[in-house]
């Protein structure tokens, strides 16, 4: 079993955005992330899957306070990040880094790769003495599969996969403990995606990193994660080890999601559960269980109470009132 | 009697679309870019052909040329695109107008930017009929538009026909585009990444819809995608493209079970299957070639683990390894035999 004390503990995290066009009416809000709780242990990878609009990217940003949470706690090594001043938070950001989806938009086009990698050291001079910068840049670049000469080049001179490597090197430059990866592979071609997956696994082992990986691709999440959380409309509906989620999915949404995954090999194909309609608006989520409007197993009582995440087995939790052991 | 039979047979044997040695070159300030380099394939009546490739493989430019969507210049198009007895590249616009959008229709990845935001969807469907079926009356067009929306699952069609694209979700807009695509009962529907912008649960809905409609109107489908899972589940035959040309063609199942090109093998290995859990993925090294800096010899050679001297010098030709299965690799037979 992993270290008993989690590295990261999220408690009832909420992010509500004011609804567009309802400036003064504070009761109308977009419930992007609603009461989300989970833990991340040292050296572990937690995968978060869900479709567009489920709040997974907002969750990622809220963890690092790139957007301010409405309420809830983000406990990192026991300390709540939510209450920290921006100056204190800044120092913690060295330990919590992020890799973004779009390697074209997330690198400053006017800085060389060397400048991009050394920028954090300008802001936090304690990390690395200036005399060691050059050597460290060289080390980071070769570590992520680029060459030392690349330090003097600009982002536009690289392909998408190479830029994602630069993004990874930049995250590594401050010696983080946790890296939150928001759709790190989705902008990449299939043949490049596998390279970057392997790279993230290598550096995890070498640097003892913990990951929160957010993705919509279920096979990628299965490959990379120790534990998996499934999100729907701002809530976690099921969380468990990868074996539990993929081998014995309990929530009807998880079951439908997994069945919709296109499989290359005939033997991997499951009977498809075709969901009706699309994800409802987070502005006005359905009462009770938010998934009930699309659920193939919905009952009238699903509309009444919001199902809580309940423990179904060791480390396996599911939020559905119609699952009985 | 016998003569009639022979004729009927000939009719069914002839592919609906036969593309031969299609080449597309763009003239740019930085020289010629060979986007498509000798693509040949055919589509039989009612069958589903998958075109699989990564960005820059030439898959979208190929169908752009087939659909007459490329402006020339800068594009220079060579080769033949035969729709039944009509060669489309050399045919005048007066001829192709009755084929493009009518007998061969196309749907795109991004539905919301492909639809006109200032026209109701009823008007957009109606416009198709006004142009291609001038004899149809207003009432008939209205009835047909509603029928089409019902066919693609938009409810209640009678009311929604007067809505604008922004009033629908992404999946619903994709359904509307499919309604436009099938409106004139085409013989071939070209779908360019039709579900890439959609979530998996909606993708499953759309692919089922396309499959159902295909059965109803006996329409052939050309499915262009980068998703191997999607072609594996939805196509009969497959063409894998890389660096502007086909590297492998054959029945989809045969290619997945017995891939005959190192690139196809690389792609299949790149997908994280469940039995790769805890193991390193076998990735293809390097990145795809730039179209203006094509390698000599085999375009895949710089990334190929099996490449030999010959591969860096001579361009491989399509070699048949089974009756309907070909690979553009100098060592195709060895690749299949493993």
Describe the 3D structure.
The complex is a heterodimer of chains A (about 325) and B (about 350). Chain A is about 25% helix and about 20% strand. In chain A, strands 6-7-8-3-9-10-12-11 form an 8-stranded mixed sheet, with helices on both faces. A 4-stranded antiparallel sheet of chain A has the order 2-1-4-5. The longest helix of chain A has 18 residues, at about 190-205. Chain A is globular. Chain A has a domain at about 10-95 and about 180-190 and about 210-320: Rossmann fold (3-Layer(aba) Sandwich), CATH 3.40.50.300. The mean pLDDT of chain A is about 90. Chain A is an alpha/beta fold and about 325 residues long. Chain B is of the alpha/beta class and about 350 residues long. Chain B has a domain at about 15-45 and about 55-105 and about 190-195 and about 225-335: Rossmann fold (3-Layer(aba) Sandwich), CATH 3.40.50. In chain B, about 35% of the residues lie in helices and about 20% in strands. Chain B has helices at about 1-15, 60-65, 95, 110-115, 120-130, 140-150, 155-160, 170-180, 200-215, 230-235, 250-255, 260-270, 330-335; strands at about 15-30, 30-45, 50, 75-85, 85, 105, 190, 220-225, 235-240, 245-250, 320, 325. Chain B has an 8-stranded mixed sheet, sandwiched between helices. A 4-stranded antiparallel sheet of chain B has the order 2-1-4-5. The longest helix of chain B is centred in the middle third of the chain and has 18 residues, at about 200-215. Chain B is globular. Mean pLDDT of chain B is about 90; it is low at about 1-10. Classes of the chains: A alpha/beta (about 325), B alpha/beta (about 350). Chains A and B meet through helix 6, helix 7 and helix 9 of A and helix 8, helix 9, helix 10 and helix 12 of B.
